[in-house]
Amino acid sequence: MRRILTREAVRGPSLRSGGRSDRVDPVRGSPDDRDLGGAVGVPPLREGTVAEQLLIAGEWVPAASGRVSETFDPASGAKLAEFAEAGSADVDVAVAAARTAFEDPDWRDLSPDARGRLLWKVADLIERDATALAELETHDQGMPIALTTNVNVTLAAQVFRYYAGWATKIEGKLSSVSVPDTLHYTRREPLGVVGLITPWNFPFAIAAWKLAPALATGNTVVLKPAEQTPLSTLKLGALCLEAGIPAGVVNVLTGGPEVGKALVAHRGVNKISFTGSTEVGQQIAGVAAADLKRVSLELGGKAPSIITRGADIDAAVMGNLQGALFNTGQACGAYTRFYVDAKRADEFTEKIAAAAQTLKIGPGIDFDTVLGPLVSQEQLDRVTGYVNGGVEQGAQLVTGGKRASGAGLDDGYFFTPTVFSGVRDDMTIAREEIFGPVLSIFSYEDEDEVIARANDSDYGLAAVLWTQDLTAAHRLAARIHAGTVFVNQLPLIDPGAPWGGFGLSGWGREMGTYALDEFTETKGVWVNLAR
């Protein structure tokens, strides 16, 4: 993560200075891999498309309705592909396929070691096709190629390897019961069919970090990517097939909200794992309650960044700038509220605004790009609305605050990095998740005050402290209401560390051993040992 905003982070022998692979077409893939579409099984049907079919029961099929939708490159507005627009009928078929696969001995009776080997193979295939996958993600989502290469695709492979190792270590316990002549033990068993609904901001990585633990624990899956960014998830489904995962274990349905709603309401689905907006998460919880379906939710965030008086201001400026603007601020863990000791607030504001103005805005496929486009016109309009609202409510616009324009930018959804000072805690930009490159700066006088203000939020996903006082770091970290607290660093994700939040940031945890709990049931077994 420390290298995600540098050109050097993604230089390599297979990449030339134009930001494109010498041998990889950004949409079709690598001819050295026999064309990514063909290599991983997604059928390229028409010129200009990557795939338009659904993956159900190991086969690529059109939507039952025959409908298709389109996905576009947010850097240029150019059409990338058409994809199948699934509906409730397709959900019924996919859930039935997943249920059949769950009961099939080819998956049900597969040894934990064999299951782990399949996940390891998926990781190998991700690494084999890493360049093409990264470029595809950049074109479909817009994020800089350094981020898709070093975070999105790399993390996906790491996650599959991490949970490949856990497949052989999912254990029950021997219980100490007080009943004479009785043995009691527990088993950890898969839930059954799980629905995974993923967002558009980190499509490939988030699909991987949901899919890998679901498979490691023996479940079968219906995976629904965001309609704005479906392409890399289709590739992931195809890689699972190529790795040898049995047909029907992984099903991928593309489409809009109708698909997600049908999946959540389906009686044949045992669990929903959702990453996305808090509003949709609340709706999912309500629908799932009808049949007490298991639910885990990773939702919005409004991460505070506390800069203490003794902090290294230059390090805090650089770290906060990257922590706020990676993926153009389209990250639930992005730093958004900056509480700076009053004696350092002016210095911090001047330095971070000046640094923001130097960042190169452009298409993510360009190696020099630091800030790519927002994902869509809808998101551009949303960010613009928040910025205009901040000005109207009296915040001082220090820099940015408008759509970026100029050579190579006019057709894309680019927005200038924006810094506000003089922000009050009750302003909309201080309370609601913007999901864009907008930084709000506040000043504070003492520790108790800043902790109370930082915690005065509906969200509690992440927070960060900038201090050179280790004692203060531990003391403050204990008082902050957030699922993850970072100290003097960027918002990192690692397969071994839990990720999730308090309050409206969601339920449950992803990553680490915690994800295994989310995808298993505990069964108690009593055995009478008396004659």
Describe the structure.
It is a single chain. With 531 residues, this protein is of the alpha/beta class. It is 36% helix and 19% strand. The protein is built from 17 helices and 22 strands. It has helices at 36-39, 88-103, 105-108, 112-128, 130-141, 145-166, 203-216, 231-243, 257-265, 278-288, 313-325, 345-357, 377-392, 428-431, 447-455, 470-479, 514-518, and strands at 54-56, 59-61, 68-72, 79-84, 174-175, 182-190, 193-197, 220-224, 250-252, 271-275, 294-298, 303-307, 335-341, 396-399, 418-421, 438-444, 459-460, 462-466, 484-487, 502-503, 506-507, 520-528. The strands form six sheets. Strands 14-15-16-13-12-18-19 form a seven-stranded mixed beta sheet, with helices on both faces. α2 (88-103) packs across α9 and α5 (130-141) packs across α6 (145-166). Residues 1-51 have low confidence and may be disordered. Residues 1-10, 19-36 have a biased composition (Basic and acidic residues).
Key terms for this structure?
531 residues; alpha/beta; 7-stranded mixed beta sheet; 6-stranded mixed beta sheet; 17 helices; 36% helix; disordered N terminus
